[in-house]
Structures are given as C-alpha cells and as structure tokens.
UniProtKB/TrEMBL annotation:
<keyword id="KW-0547">Nucleotide-binding</keyword>
<dbReference type="InterPro" id="IPR039421">
    <property type="entry name" value="Type_1_exporter"/>
</dbReference>
<dbReference type="GO" id="GO:0016887">
    <property type="term" value="F:ATP hydrolysis activity"/>
</dbReference>
<dbReference type="InterPro" id="IPR003439">
    <property type="entry name" value="ABC_transporter-like_ATP-bd"/>
</dbReference>
<feature type="domain" description="ABC transporter">
    <location>
        <begin position="362"/>
        <end position="597"/>
    </location>
</feature>
<protein>
    <submittedName>
        <fullName>ABC transporter-like protein</fullName>
    </submittedName>
</protein>
<keyword id="KW-0067">ATP-binding</keyword>
<keyword id="KW-0472">Membrane</keyword>
<feature type="transmembrane region" description="Helical">
    <location>
        <begin position="44"/>
        <end position="70"/>
    </location>
</feature>
<keyword id="KW-0813">Transport</keyword>
<dbReference type="Pfam" id="PF00664">
    <property type="entry name" value="ABC_membrane"/>
</dbReference>
<keyword id="KW-1003">Cell membrane</keyword>
<dbReference type="InterPro" id="IPR036640">
    <property type="entry name" value="ABC1_TM_sf"/>
</dbReference>
<feature type="domain" description="ABC transmembrane type-1">
    <location>
        <begin position="48"/>
        <end position="328"/>
    </location>
</feature>
<keyword id="KW-0997">Cell inner membrane</keyword>
<dbReference type="InterPro" id="IPR011527">
    <property type="entry name" value="ABC1_TM_dom"/>
</dbReference>
<dbReference type="InterPro" id="IPR027417">
    <property type="entry name" value="P-loop_NTPase"/>
</dbReference>
Amino acid sequence: MAHVLRRLLSVGEPTDALVAPAPPVPPSAVFRRFWPYTRGWRRWLLPIVFFSLVGPLVDAAEIWLFKIVVDDVLVPRDLRPFLWIAPAYLGLVLASGVLGFADDVSSTWVSERFLLSLRADVFRHVQGLSLGFFERRRLGDVLSRVTGDVDAVETFLLSGVADALYYVIRLGVFLGLLLYLRWDLTLLALLIVPLFWGAGRHFSRLIKEASRERRRLSGSVSAIAEESLGNVALVQAYNRQAWEERRFERESAGRFRAAMASARIRAVYRPVVEVIEVTGGLAVMGLGTWKLTQGQLTLGGLLVFLALIGKLYSPVRGLSRLGTTFYTASASAERIIELLDQRPQVTESPGARRIGRARGDVEFDGVCFRYPGAASWALSDVSFHAAPGQTLALVGASGAGKSTVAKLQLRFYDPDRGAVRLDGTDLRDLDLSGVRENVAVVLQETLVFHGTVRENIAYGRPEATEAEIVAAARAADAHDFIELLPEGYDTLVGQRGRTLSGGQCQRLAIARAMVRDAPVLLLDEPTSGLDAGSGRRIMDPLRRLMAGRTTIVISHNLMTVREATRIVVLDHGRVTEDGTHDQLLRRGGTYARLNRLNGTTGVGAPGKVLS
Ligand SMILES: Nc1ncnc2c1ncn2[C@@H]1O[C@H](COP(=O)(O)OP(=O)(O)OP(=O)(O)O)[C@@H](O)[C@H]1O
C-alpha cells in the first residue's frame, strides 16, 4: 500500500530537457520580488474585500432562512411564514447573483490589467538584453516564459492574495456565526483544521516539484516548435520531418509525464481532504444528534449548524489548496525571475554623452574580444581606422572575426581590451541609442518583417516621409520592382521576406539603410547570398548608399573590396595584412592569394564591375 502511494506521489527524475531549470526561489521571496509590481492595483483589492465580506453574510442569511423553514414551517406544518420566507430567499439569491457578477468582472479586470503591464515590462526587459543573451538562449523557451509563465505571477500576487483574503474573511464570518450558535460543537469541528494544514503543506511541496518540471518541459516544447517551424524550409529540404517529430514527441512526452505526476498528486490530495472533512462532519453530527435527543438543540438548529460547518470547511480547504496554487505559480514565477535577473552585458554608463549626428570617424584600437564562455579570442589586438567617408574592407576566411567587428561597432558587445571609437570617443562613453542611430546596416541575412514594403523601408527611420521612402527605393533600384508588386508600396511581404527574391530583399534593405541616412554604414556580406547577376545589380545601389559615408564592408569573396580606401585582412582574429588593393597584391600575401582564387573560381567576377 505504502509502495503504491509512494509511486503515485513520485514526481519522477528530472529528464535532461533542452531547457535548464530556473534556480529555485522560496515563495516568500517570489512574493517580495513581485509585490512592488502591484502598486497601482492594490486599491482594487478593497472591492474584493467588500465582496468577500458581503458574500458570506448573504450565504449565512440563506442558511438562516432554511433554519426558519425547518423550525417554523416544516416541524409545526404551518405554511404562513413561508409567504415571506419565499420572496426573502429569492431576494437573497438575486443579491448574491449581482454580487457574484460584480466580483467576477472586477477581479478579472484587475488581473488582466496587471498582466498587461507586467507582460509589457517583461517584454521590455527581454528586449533590452544584449545580443549575447539571445545567442545563448533558446528563443522558444523565452517566448514560453513571456507568454505563459507571466500569468502565474498574477495568480501568485493578485488572484492568490484576493483568494486568500476571500477565504480568511469567509472563515472569520462563519466561525463567528458558529461560535455564536454552539461554541462546543464548533471547537469539536475545529479539531481537524491542523490535519488540513498538514496535508496542504505536504502536498504543496510535491506539487511544486512537479509544476517546476512541467513548466521547464513546456519551455523545451516551445523551443523545439520554434526551431523546427522557423527553419521549415531546411527541415523539408533535408527530409528531416520525422527526426524533428521525434524530437518534438520526446519533449512533449516528458511534459506529459510531468503533467501526469502533478495530476496524480492532486488526485490523491482531493480524497485525503474529503476524508478529513467528512470525519469532522461526522463527529459534529454525532455530538449534535446526541444534543438533539437531549433536547438541547432543535432539528433546524442542527441542520443549520451542519450546513454552516460545510461553509466553514470550504474556506479552510480553499486556504490549504491555495498553498498548492501558490507553489504551482511560484514554479513559473521562478522562470520569470531568472529572466528578469539577466542583466544586459552592454549598458549605458551613467555619464554617457549624447552624440547626435557623428562625422563618422571609426577606430578600433587594440581591440581584444572573446565571446562569453568561448575558449579562444574572436579578435586579438585588432586596430584600424576609417576617416569620415572612407571605405574600409574586412577580408578573411570564415570564422576570422569579420562579423564580430560589426557586432562591436554596433556595441552589441564591448571589447575585453582596447577600445572602439566613434569620432574619437570610446563607444562606452556615448549613449547607446546614439551609437546605433549613427550606424546603418545591410546584412548577409536580410531582415524583412511581416508588413508592407513601405513599413519595411521606413523601419530605418519611422518618421521618414513618403517622398523620402520613394527616393530611397529609387536609389536602391527597388522602386521599379515595387511598382510591379500587386499593391505597390502597400504590398505585404511575408515574414523574412519570403515572398520576395533574395536580390529584392537586399534592395529593400539598402533602401532602409538609405532612409536611415547614418554617417556609418556596415555592409556584412551584402552580396553573398546572391547569384552573380543579382550581385552585380545591387552594386550600383550599394555605391550610391556608400557615397559620403564611412563604410565598413565585410566580404569573403572580395567582390566589393577593390575600391576600398583600405583593406584589412583578418586571420583567426588577428590583423595580418593592411593596405590598398594594389599594395596588398604587390605584397603577395593572403590577400593576393585570395584574389587569385577568386579570379580562378569566378566568384570575384562581379568585383570587376567595381574596377
Ligand atoms: N555568439 C558567439 N558565441 C561564441 N562564439 C562565437 C559567436 N559568434 C561567433 N563566434 C566565434 O567567433 C569567431 C569569429 O566569428 P565571426 O562570425 O566574427 O567570423 P566571420 O569572419 O564573420 O565568419 P563568416 O565569414 O563565416 O561569417 C568564430 O570562431 C566563431 O566561431
């Protein structure tokens, strides 16, 4: 028997899910952490207290009417009192309906308003985290926290506190009435309360463990769904559907086991509570019946007493069940706390200077950088300088550190040693949004949002006028193809630009960078995803975009680099060569070799457009 019970109550060993568990936090700490968030909503607890106070009084009045029916109508078989009892009873039921409505609507309003602002806060916080966080974490899990776990915080604070108040008030009212009616029977009924508490505490702990596991596995399921569906083209192209399904099923099965463990614990808890409750009720009924036979109690009095005991046990049960609700909610709240405890690695210093529009003087001075947790340096002692309007090309094999330079220029990360400067000032001493406002980017992976063409271009500068958007599109050679789209600038382009070709996406990205009109331009492999023809077609728009801006162009295939004022060759994070195209060719080093390779493979062919 004990063995069966132990198995029923076992939470199971935590599986090695994709998502690590959040560090445990005691419920009191969860409470302290989130209580300040209820500022502004606390006064709404007052009507809830009011409803909690009036509700049990109405209930007690209904029960009292029942006593009168038994003692004054049924026992003496006299119908007359019933004539006023019936409308009074109906009135009470109506009143309790109106109260219930007001209570439901107002409490839902408060919880939803609270959730609205908390979710927005959590989203704001997550959005403000540095790129490093997103590169390390599984997006699906973060989404499941922002959309799912946040609700639990509300349960913990507002619904939980409101319910606790509701139960305590009900308990107080019914206890007062019972003590007033029969203190001896009431004390007997109260003997079982410690049993309620004991069971509540024990089961709450088990439920918390099971809930923690369930929330963690929910995060894993979301992570897999997001990764597989987000890369559906890759999955289908490589026929990996069955593998992805197995992965999804494995994580879902883990979640199923955790949900079953929690359901089993609850299912055992419920009859345990009922047995305790019935024991108390039977004891009271025994003593009450004895008192009835002794003539110390009327039948109506005994029935009222038993009905009130039922009402007394319901808040006691509610309070002990609230323990399990709190523990379940705190398992989710822990995941939110872990998210909120993440600090952005890149922050604005208190004395940061507002930069306004920069001239565009870019300098890397002895920059060393290692990704958090990485064993080797991504950049070691990298130095270069680009004066306003100059073009600097970064060349090197895959993994040499070129994109890392771009990330440091955007201040997604800070260097471990050395400094990145804009107009001679260390980026760390400038305001973060100012640094980014001065840089426009065109990346290898084009970022196109689900929205209209116009919105996608204006993303570079939301206040851009229609004329500026069209001028940017013209300069980016995008205007003609946009005009041919079914609804021109109002055509919806799918998420990640699925309805556009690679070259069209790139031209939209160029138009967006044009509209931004920043003095510094970062081009990270802007032509690498395109075939030779499309690559050639975006060279002119790119040139127009680069004119008058300091440009850092990152390229594998030397397509866009010949015209650069200066070419920096990176190898394993170090600058190995540095000079103009001709100087580097004469030197006969890595660049010359890469250039020869490009020439022979034909990859460099579009580069000739530049020469
Ligand atoms: N988020 C990251 N966390 C840890 N290591 C990283 C991260 N991003 C890049 N790296 C490592 O840093 C090094 C430089 O990467 P980077 O992306 O800058 O190279 P790259 O020259 O731009 O390569 P490619 O031409 O293939 O885009 C590589 O060894 C890479 O594995």
